[in-house]
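[stage:ingest] chain + small molecule (NDP)
[stage:ingest] validated
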Amino acid sequence: MGVYSPCKSFFQGIKLATIINGKEISQQIRGEIANTVKTITDTGAPPPGLAVIIVGDSKASQVYVSAKKKACEQAGFYSLEIILPAETTQAQLLQKIDDLNNDAKIHGILIQLPLPSHINESAILEAISTDKDVDCFNPKNFGYLNLGADCLQPCTPSGALELLKRYQIPIEGKNALVVGRSNIVGKPMATLLTRENATVTIAHSRTKNLPELCKNADIIVAAIGKPEFIKGAWIKENCVVLDVGTNSVNDPTSPKGYKLVGDVEYEEAAKRASFITPVPGGVGPMTIAMLLSNTLKAREKLLNNN
Ligand code: NDP
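[stage:predict] done
[stage:export] tokens:
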């Protein structure tokens, strides 16, 4: 893995971190998955199948879903996009999930969140079969994850972890700081790092001494949703920085009028970190790669259990 060696780059005398190229790693994983799917389908067996449900007509969700559809096609998956009107009732959505739970062509089910306010989100997430719950949304899977069981793992945190592994960055015994405690990123990220034997601290909006905690961290995972909130000066020399934050900020120089930035002050942090993920192109692209990977795993498990 020569290209990923932790050698430092030098620019105008300033030492810079190795940039973790999530886009490239994600393409690599998607290529590996496509090869596996080809070996499956070459035998005449059906491919992995992923169903994505959106309720309502959010443009952002639809853009995301069409990206998933494209990724499925490239990997040779069977893909189903179910776009339901915003007025869909809870009972109708539960029926749709039940149909997919019983559909042998489907191995992964993903519900695009948030759901309209008249639908009880927990009831919906609990209805997804744990065997097909490819983003670990079902509370039972969340529990299994915390018990250290062999279960499907949430896509974004497992994508961030996979980056550490692919770059051969040691985790065991390291002080890891996860900033953010959401159910979809922060909490499962902390669990996954604990499972890898890191010593994990979780920070959140009520944390009093964030700069101090950052100074003590060998690995920082930022999942806050506030542009460049974590300052470069807070970061310990040679820290590994995984920036999950994806924030849109005004940028008159960009043709779109905005640009995406992370939760970490990238330019300054890159002068102190050993490895750092950029935004965009770091953790972000890993989510879809892990979604495909989970669907493939779910297929294998479902076939072995039947
Ligand atoms: P949430 O809004 O659900 O959670 C944000 C977390 O940040 C909360 O736990 C909150 O603490 C914490 N927080 C807020 N302010 C501070 C502060 N001042 N100091 C420390 N912690 C603070 O966000 P998500 O977890 O869903 O997402 C986080 C970021 O990751 C977003 O930018 C999102 O866009 C991005 N994201 C990227 C993905 C991808 O790349 N594929 C996927 C999912 C998310 P508290 O609990 O106390 O309120």
